[in-house]
Amino acid sequence: MYTFSSKLKTFAFVLMALGLVGIVFGFLTAPKTIEDVEKILADSHHGGHHTEAVAHESHDEHAATAAHHEEAKTETVVADSLKTENDTVAAAAPVAADHHDNHKVEAAHGHDHADAHAEHQEHLEHVLHQLQNKPWAALYVACIFFMLISVGVLAFYAIQWAAQAGWSPVLFRVMEGITSYLLPGSIIFFILLVASGMHLNHLFVWMDPEVVKHDELIQGKQGFLNVPFFLIRAAIFLAGWNLYRYFSRKNSLAQDNANDDAFYKKNFKLAAGFLVFFIVTESIASWDWIMSVDPHWYSTLFGWYVFASFFVSGITTIAFVTLYLKSKGYLEHVNTSHIHDLAKFMFGISIFWTYLWFSQFMLMWYSNIPEEVTYFITRIENYKLPFFGMLALNFVFPVLILVNTEFKRLSWVVVMAGLLILTGHYIDFFNMIMPATVGDQWFIGVSEIGSLMFFFGLFIFVVFTALTKAPLLAKRNPLIEESKHFHY
Amino acid sequence: MSNKVIHVLYNDDDILMDAVRQTRAAHHHIEEIYTPFPVHGLDKAMGLAPTRIAITSFLYGLVGLSVATAMMNYIMIQDWPQDIGGKPSFSYIQNMPAFVPVMFEMTVFFAAHLMVITFYMRSKLWPFKEAENPDVRTTDDHFLMEVAVHGDEDQMVAFFEKTGAVEVKVIDKH
């Protein structure tokens, strides 16, 4: 039996406490009114330390407006103005009615001072929404990231059962421990979704009736994107995953004391059924929870893309927990071949993720259809480092490090590669959520790191508490002997 | 100096593996082993050095990537940077997504084919190559271990007969 080390427990509590402080700080320092925003912007303009993002946006607007006033003065100015206008309109047109981007179009067509003032007010309101979203979005990204890690492990676990894998049964209890986070994680996540549905935040613009009134595109999607249906769907998905997790764990424990393989067979069928349910619900969940923050944008392979992202994170987490328990001497039968197999999965699924990322990016980049490509334009313009940095973290480094067979057997190499992968996939989720919710006001600061720390602490606490509840080696699993002697 | 070798034949891969271990423990030099199919762990039991073909493959892949990049950079960007459907041909990086499929395929192509050719050359395999099969049964159901003779020939034959061999022959290799 595993005993939760008091050091690790303290570490988890410290993380949760510090994280909570960070989260609360983030909410308290978010601006409440337009005046606050005006002050923040004024400070950033005159202080000399202005953030590039803010300066950049207002500069663009000034350029567009100014260009209109001085139209036809010189050829170059006209050319410039047209270029600026076209850029702005191209970027904003598909989301024209979206209140987040509304002002851009208006800015481009503004002609007199009255309009300019209204524009300014609208701009302030826009920035206010973004800044108010910031602590919410930080919480949302960290929450969905950790919850989906446990979902990824659950999917991996189900695949191992359904495939009757001979190498992995010694890791089943580790996986079951990690998936125990699913229940608390999904409860918190569902509460966040309900909070959005109650208009406590502006994470999902389509939930705002004011926005929908002026937005024909969202109106057309209201049959799917409406709050009650959204919450019902989320409840069904989360409940289905949790039920599978509950029964598979129950059967797995019951198999330990059984006289036959009845519980094993039950779990096999359950896993097969779950995988069918999972692939459908996961796809819809990724439209709901992630793609719908950009309600004007759509991508057909998005579900797979999100799946690959959290699946590889989940496998990495299995490797981490396994290596930790192994280093503490709790996993007698786990050898370097098991680690090697996990590292191979980390390697392979990292490449799979990159393949999907590139397929999504390249198809849109190549065809350059305005309503699709804005998604990437906003990301490349405002999130250049995270957007391309995650490619290095999620693809280049894992490929170069984990391509070597010897390296895949070394704990420290797997841990280093795993840290890169997990960081990269957090940034991946950050890149998916943030541009639509906080736009160019993003920053990885107190809110983001606080939320991450809180959920990380909770994750450690829940997972390692669950690991103490059952022996770390499944006893009567028909494949356990093979798994104990697994050797690659 | 005579070039005598002993051909020891087995009809089971487990017996062969045991025999290899005994032979190595008795410090007889195994010249070669002929099997009808890959025997898992035989190379380790024989103490053969690990293959480096994966390393060559990685390097060939890098060559392929370089060839693809240099080729497309020259053709599409340097030599004749046309505007084809609005694609930005001002610099390689600007149009890179369009080149990635070719870069990928060339990497795989070079890595795979050059590795295969390396394998053929290192294992001396080519069409019309004369087969080096000491006993036709080794392609069907027999395993043959060839051991160099030094010292007492009779003693060695006796040793190999005890390892579960179905047949032990002393051959004069020219």
Automatic annotation (TrEMBL), chain A:
Superkingdom classification of source: Bacteria
Keyword check for Transmembrane helix: yes
Region named Disordered: 45-76
Ranges that cross the membrane: 12-30, 137-159, 180-207, 227-247, 268-290, 302-325, 345-365, 385-403, 410-427, 442-467
Skewed-composition ranges (Basic and acidic residues): 45-74
Keywords from the UniProt entry: Membrane, Transmembrane, Transmembrane helix
Xref: PANTHER family: PTHR43044, QUINOL:CYTOCHROME C OXIDOREDUCTASE QUINONE-BINDING SUBUNIT 2
Record protein name field: Quinol:cytochrome C oxidoreductase
Organism from which the protein derives: Flavobacterium cerinum
From TrEMBL, chain B:
Keywords annotated in UniProt: Membrane, Transmembrane, Transmembrane helix
Lineage top rank: taxon: Bacteria
Residue intervals passing through the bilayer: 53-76, 96-120
Pfam families, per database record: ActD (PF11821)
UniProt name for this protein: DUF3341 domain-containing protein
Organism: Flavobacterium cerinum
